[in-house]
Write a structure and sequence with these properties.
- The protein has about 180 residues and is an alpha+beta fold.
- About 35% of the residues lie in helices and about 30% in strands.
- β5 and β6 form a beta hairpin.
- The longest helix is centred in the last third of the chain and has 28 residues.
């Protein structure tokens, strides 16, 4: 009986915990469905990932107030969602922090080197939400990350860079 109750509670609670963007569940999102949903929501495409790039870039002013860009990353091998990141042209947004806290609860706070380098994290397995200041770009970033897929994407990118270096080295030796 206890097992049945637990299974029932998990089946009822799981859909409530789904993390969605543009009506797409990020835990199971793929490249085609999320791209289509973002475009239908009114995002203006800047660049779409291809053979030589690893993420899409959109103008996002019409999607999320005060944002300027939305970046989407997908694992090349299977098209699975790795990350979505909004970029804001300021270093602080207390309203955004308050909204995220209301929606996902109190964040885990990660202190940086300076007092102003605080990063806020919310875990919504298998995803993580991060709100952080990007000082070099003078931007605030709101990220939705599926860590295992982001690691796969980074491996793909590292392998691609290594292959480009090999090709470059071969081209230089062929020139002699």
């Amino acid at each position: 009986m206890r097992v049945f109750c637990l299974l029932f509670l998990l089946s009822v609670a799981s859909p409530l915990l789904a993390l969605e963007l543009f009506g797409i569940d990020l835990a199971s999102a793929n490249r085609d469905s999320l791209r289509q949903a973002v475009k239908q929501a009114g995002a203006e495409l800047i660049e779409e990932a291809g053979e030589n790039s690893f993420f899409d870039a959109y103008r996002s002013e019409s999607l999320l107030q005060d944002s300027r860009r939305l970046y989407l990353g997908f694992v090349k091998a299977d098209g699975g969602f790795a990350f979505a990141e909004y970029e804001f042209p300021q270093l602080r947004n207390p309203r955004m922090l308050r909204k995220l806290t209301e929606r996902y609860g109190p964040p885990e706070t990660v202190e940086g080197k300076f007092l102003t380098d605080t990063e806020y994290r919310w875990r919504q397995p298998p995803l993580e939400i991060r709100l952080r200041q990007d000082w070099p770009a003078h931007a605030l970033r709101l990220s939705y990350i599926q860590k295992d897929r982001l690691q796969r994407l980074r491996r793909e990118q590292a392998e691609w860079l290594q292959e480009q270096r090999r090709k470059g080295d071969k081209d230089r030796t062929d020139a002699w």
